[in-house]
């Protein structure tokens, strides 16, 4: 017995040390782990373009000057472009700097379309530089289309301006070759845009695939849930006769079984609702339900860890009826609660306050946590499907699901946040008609 207790204590110590080690690793990890997946990929693209510029400009100066000499090269322009690309190598470390997006746009504009088009003009539209300009366009349109278009237009305008300032007349511009190049560039840009549209179609296919996967998982879960329900029913039928009526544990066991039955029924109905609404939330039955009672039911059912049992405070001024589906609304609140708890755990501080306000424009449920908050660039994309923050910390469908459900009731959800202070969701319902 003592050996067993000692082993349990040892395992507890080991588990605590493992958790503390993992927490230390997490806290000292790169800041990019606190960014969403797309932001991480954007920073990596910036870093890769920075590496291409830092290596490519000096390398190709040597190639076009000494190995395959071209009519025109400029060491000073190459050095300026190389210097501009150096900070881009540290984009991940500088991700918290507000000036980084503007600087990246400026550096890439100067180092690619501006420099390449200027060299194209100075080299009399040679084949080498015509192909180089096309490559620059391909690299640009791996970024956001607006970013790429601004860089291309600004870079071209700057290159023509510098060409004129360098003492060339309009007659010095290789118009014939330039006009031939424009349709080719337009076709390349069109192809790149189509590829991006194809990516959006893939995202939509992913959404449909997740709906099918959800239906499959639900099908597999129904059998064990049915078995558990039958077991709970059998226990409730036999325990009263098996236990001494005077036993102090009898009532507690019966209450626990009742809670188990209620939870199993709720899980079954939630699965049915999720499957029914994975494609169209409008298919769920709508009726008037009382917001305050549904809020309390959702929080009571949530599986809080012991340390977070009292983290939620609900403030409901007066009863308020809204049109929708109570069980789906519970799933919305459950999702918001889960996200808020994860944020609070990351920050190591905070609580959750839920308030219901009846206003002239409708009934508002305000869900606020005082955890770490989110930065503005994340807030702007909060409800985008498959967007998760931090990166790789979920499927990214929870908030999109909440938005779609509320929209199906002619309600809405919005979010405001101040980084390091709070995040607040406003669930706005219209007043019931009639």
From TrEMBL:
<keyword id="KW-0808">Transferase</keyword>
<dbReference type="Pfam" id="PF00512">
    <property type="entry name" value="HisKA"/>
</dbReference>
<feature type="transmembrane region" description="Helical">
    <location>
        <begin position="127"/>
        <end position="143"/>
    </location>
</feature>
<feature type="transmembrane region" description="Helical">
    <location>
        <begin position="102"/>
        <end position="121"/>
    </location>
</feature>
<keyword id="KW-1133">Transmembrane helix</keyword>
<keyword id="KW-0597">Phosphoprotein</keyword>
<feature type="domain" description="Histidine kinase">
    <location>
        <begin position="216"/>
        <end position="433"/>
    </location>
</feature>
<feature type="transmembrane region" description="Helical">
    <location>
        <begin position="49"/>
        <end position="69"/>
    </location>
</feature>
<keyword id="KW-0472">Membrane</keyword>
<dbReference type="InterPro" id="IPR036097">
    <property type="entry name" value="HisK_dim/P_sf"/>
</dbReference>
<protein>
    <recommendedName>
        <fullName>histidine kinase</fullName>
        <ecNumber>2.7.13.3</ecNumber>
    </recommendedName>
</protein>
<dbReference type="InterPro" id="IPR005467">
    <property type="entry name" value="His_kinase_dom"/>
</dbReference>
<dbReference type="GO" id="GO:0000155">
    <property type="term" value="F:phosphorelay sensor kinase activity"/>
</dbReference>
<dbReference type="InterPro" id="IPR004358">
    <property type="entry name" value="Sig_transdc_His_kin-like_C"/>
</dbReference>
<keyword id="KW-0547">Nucleotide-binding</keyword>
<dbReference type="InterPro" id="IPR036890">
    <property type="entry name" value="HATPase_C_sf"/>
</dbReference>
<dbReference type="Pfam" id="PF02518">
    <property type="entry name" value="HATPase_c"/>
</dbReference>
<keyword id="KW-0812">Transmembrane</keyword>
<feature type="transmembrane region" description="Helical">
    <location>
        <begin position="75"/>
        <end position="95"/>
    </location>
</feature>
<dbReference type="InterPro" id="IPR003594">
    <property type="entry name" value="HATPase_dom"/>
</dbReference>
<dbReference type="InterPro" id="IPR003661">
    <property type="entry name" value="HisK_dim/P_dom"/>
</dbReference>
<dbReference type="GO" id="GO:0005524">
    <property type="term" value="F:ATP binding"/>
</dbReference>
<keyword id="KW-0902">Two-component regulatory system</keyword>
<keyword id="KW-0418">Kinase</keyword>
<feature type="transmembrane region" description="Helical">
    <location>
        <begin position="177"/>
        <end position="197"/>
    </location>
</feature>
<keyword id="KW-0067">ATP-binding</keyword>
<feature type="transmembrane region" description="Helical">
    <location>
        <begin position="150"/>
        <end position="171"/>
    </location>
</feature>
